Structure formats: structure tokens, C-alpha cells
Amino acid sequence: GAGVSQTPSNKVTEKGKYVELRCDPISGHTALYWYRQSLGQGPEFLIYFQGTGAADDSGLPNDRFFAVRPEGSVSTLKIQRTERGDSAVYLCASSSGPGWGELFFGEGSRLTVL
Amino acid sequence: AQSVTQLGSHVSVSEGALVLLRCNYSSSVPPYLFWYVQYPNQGLQLLLKYTSAATLVKGINGFEAEFKKSETSFHLTKPSAHMRDAAEYFCAVSEGRDNYQLIWGAGTKLIIKP
């Protein structure tokens, strides 16, 4: 597609469940980013991929969060044993290279943990 | 550490009036500065960026921003507001072109009164 695609757009789950959020970046973009946006706040960096590897995962809040990008395109953010505090909009962005600042964002996946 | 402060979570202006959205930053090195816009039900979109060239930066949709080092500010302006400008605006900073981590402000919701 022409833009960054994220699925699902909305996910409601129960505390303790496992969740996967998918991001399909713009074709040819080597850099992919995950951010989390809580209500009333700006995006918060989670992880950055350059190609298939996680170049920086320092923003992941704890070991319940994990992300992969096995073929250097689609990425999946995985959250284990979800907690109510994980409720947020998870944003994915891609760019043609690191540090350009011209991130192209998807519409986000809104996660609600009951 | 870097930080971004956006003054006013909500700004309301009349259609045709001047738009001024404030952004102040802190950075230990010359920063790269960005404004992103999020229209309802859409992903974040780059409005404009400052990357150490001209201090007055022109963006899309008639917006511009001026980098003032002495004031550590990067305020966003538009001479005449349109109803279509109603959106949430985010200021972000990174420490240089090769730094992929953007630090974001909390956002300002722009409300346009008819």
C-alpha cells in the first residue's frame, strides 16, 4: 500500500492475555519505529529497527514487550501478560533511513486492557 | 536530557485569525526540530522541520515556524486559520540528524471557531 498500515485498529483484551500488533511499513523503507501514545501525551519511543535487526530497544518498558521484523518489512509488536497500564495507542512509523525525522506514521492500534 | 514543552493542551481561535502554537525545548546540542499534525482519524504527518539551515521554516498548508536559539523556542504560526486546520499538533526534537529518537511534546489541540 501507499502508506503505513497497522492492524488491528482496535483491540480490546483482558488482563493477562497475549496481544500482537502488526505494522506494514511503506515499501522500501528500511527503518521502522514503534511508539506508544497514552491519553494526553505525546508519542513515547519503544523500539527502532534498521532492516531486520532491532537497533535500539531501550524504550521497551519491560520484558513483557517484544518486537520482531524477520524479513525487514512487516513488524509485529508482542505484549505478554497484558496489564491495564498497557492501554494506549501503539504507533508504527517508517522512514527511508535513520535520523531523517521524516517519519511516516500509521493510524495506530488502540489497545484497551480490561 | 532533552525535553519538549508545548504551552496549552487546547488552543481555540476564530476562523481567519492568527494561529500561534508554542513549543519550547531543551537540548544540550544544536537540535533538529519538527512539527507534526494529526487530523482526526489519521496518522501523524510531518508539517515542517528545522535542520540548522534557515531559521524560518515554511511547511505545508500555510504553516511556518521560527527557530529562536536564544529563547529555545520553535513556535508554529499561520496567519489565517481555516476550519480544516482543526487537529492536534505535536512538536518534537532530536539531537542531530543521525539520532533517530524523537522526543515529543504532549500536543496541542487546535480548535477553530466559525
Average residue-wise pLDDT of chain A: 92
Shape call of chain A: globular
Mean pLDDT of chain B: 91
Q: Tell me the β content of chain B.
A: over 45%
The stretches of 5 or more residues of chain B where confidence is low (pLDDT under 50) are: none
Please work out how many helical segments of chain B DSSP would assign: 0
Q: What is the chains' assembly state?
A: heterodimer
Shape of chain B: globular
User: What level of helicity do the residues of chain A show?
Assistant: under 10%
The largest sheet of chain A is: 7 strands, mixed
Report the span from N to C terminus of chain A. 33 Å
How is this fold's topology laid out?
The complex is a heterodimer of chains A (114) and B (114).
Chain A: E1 5-7, E2 10-13, E3 19-24, E4 31-37, E5 44-50, E6 53-56, E7 65-68, E8 75-79, E9 88-95, E10 104-105, E11 109-113
Parallel strand pairs in A: 2-11
Antiparallel strand pairs in A: 1-3, 3-8, 4-5, 4-9, 5-6, 7-8, 9-10, 9-11
Chain B: E1 3-7, E2 10-14, E3 19-26, E4 32-38, E5 45-50, E6 56-58, E7 64-68, E8 73-78, E9 87-94, E10 103-104, E11 108-113
Task: Explain what this protein looks like in three dimensions.
The complex is a heterodimer of chains A (114) and B (114). With 114 residues, chain A is mainly β. Chain A is built from no helices and 11 strands. In chain A, strands 2, 4, 5, 6, 9, 10 and 11 form a 7-stranded mixed sheet that branches. A 4-stranded antiparallel sheet of chain A has the order 1-3-8-7, with no helix packed on it. Chain A is globular. The mean pLDDT of chain A is 92. With 114 residues, chain B is mainly beta. Chain B has strands at 3-7, 10-14, 19-26, 32-38, 45-50, 56-58, 64-68, 73-78, 87-94, 103-104, 108-113. In chain B, strands 2, 4, 5, 9, 10 and 11 form a 6-stranded mixed sheet that branches. A 5-stranded antiparallel sheet of chain B has the order 1-3-8-7-6, with no helix packed on it. In chain B, a hairpin with an 8-residue loop joins strand 9 and strand 10 (103-104). Chain B is globular and about 40 Å long. The termini of chain B are far apart. At the A-B interface, strand 5 and strand 10 of A face strand 4, strand 5 and strand 9 of B.
